[in-house]
Give the backbone structure.
Amino acid sequence: MAVSDLLWRYAVKRFDPNRTIDSETWSRIEQSLVVTPSSFGLQPWKFFVIHSPEMKAKLSAISWNQSQPSDCSHMVAMAAMHTVSEEYVDRFIQSACKARNSPPESMEGYRRVILGFLKQKQGQHLSWATNQVYIALGQLMSTAASLKVDTCPMEGIVASEYDKLLGLENTEYHVVVGCALGYRHADDKYAQAPKVRFDPNEIIQYI
Ligand SMILES: Cc1cc2nc3c(=O)[nH]c(=O)nc-3n(C[C@H](O)[C@H](O)[C@H](O)COP(=O)(O)O)c2cc1C
């Protein structure tokens, strides 16, 4: 990941509807979602990849009529967990034991620390999980940029309508943000627009 990739990327306003991300490139992008780090490694998320033109068109209608969901190649709806249950933690511990070939007893202390943390955060799991989802969003955009794939992060969505469309009502997941991926349209004037950022001296302080 080079800084030049970060300067190359911008939030695409107009995607080229005729270009699709090939499956090999997509699988590398998908991997960046899977390996996203999270607090305790709990991965309190689900990512919905919408590739079908019919579904993408429906998403534009519930995204403030922005064109990115329908014109992009892959639209990712990123969902966070409302409540992280003890059963979920146990499933996570089991998967950790399997990955590291260690007995469950060796992780009992860790398990208790996680449960204590979650108890303390009762009622705030969604906002905590949302923080984790945004790490995935950043990693997704950076990886895409390194592969010269364009993105637009999207909070301009009606999350409750996304939940409905994706069948997430009455589940433990709630869509919190979207990300459109594909290729910029040749006529997207924002590609040439200079970056708007505060001076580094204003936002970075050395102590
Ligand atoms: C979390 C988040 C949500 C955003 N939502 C939208 C959106 O719904 N529509 C849009 O066109 N741009 C959206 N943006 C893009 C920002 O406006 C853009 O990133 C910012 O102006 C900086 O410009 P740049 O990304 O082109 O460097 C969003 C950005 C972020 C990080």
